[in-house]
Design brief:
The chain is built from five helices and seven strands. By secondary structure, the protein is α/β, with parallel strands linked by helices.
Length: 163
């Protein structure tokens, strides 16, 4: 299944839906949407629906953390339809410190206004390296216990960006 990130914004609330795998491939569009949210004066909430998400990598979860840290205390951040495997992953690296989980399934969502935010995988890793580095650094900054998990990735990406 192709990975996609769909989103829609209405009345200051942004709704994301991850279809397939939430990986570094959809992170450029996810990050851009998050930057737009941070700049918006009318943002009142963010929800991520994981009902169609197969898995998430650390880069995707790192972008969630970055948004969560920057929006903490400003607007509610909700995760809906998280399967137990999602919850284990997200709790394991501390995402639940900055995002709230809705425990009851949310099935009555109107998706007809969702626009596709990702036009496919980006093949050029040079554009992705800074995003992957930033996402992993956010995971470490959120919880120092994540340092051993992602230290090698961060060091490698930093070394690759040196001229």
């Amino acid at each position: 299944m192709e990975s996609k990130l769909l989103y829609a914004t209405q009345d200051g609330v942004t709704l994301f839906q991850v279809i397939g795998r939430g990986t570094y491939k959809i992170c450029p569009s996810f990050r851009k949407c998050c930057e737009d949210l941070l700049a918006a004066k009318d943002a009142t909430g963010v929800t991520i629906d994981l009902s169609r998400c197969e898995s998430m990598d650390s880069t995707f979860m790192g972008i969630m953390v970055m948004l969560g840290i920057k929006m903490r205390g400003k607007i509610p951040l909700l995760v809906v339809n998280a399967k137990p495997v999602h919850r284990t992953l997200l709790d394991g690296i501390g995402v639940s410190r900055v995002w709230r989980f809705v425990d009851e399934p949310v099935t009555d969502m109107n998706w007809h206004n969702l626009a596709q935010a990702s036009a496919g995988a980006i093949k050029d890793m040079t554009n992705l390296a800074p995003i992957i580095l930033e996402a992993h650094q956010a995971l470490i900054d959120l919880d120092p216990a994540n340092l051993p998990k992602f230290k090698d990735v961060v060091e490698l990406l930093k070394a690759e960006q040196q001229p």
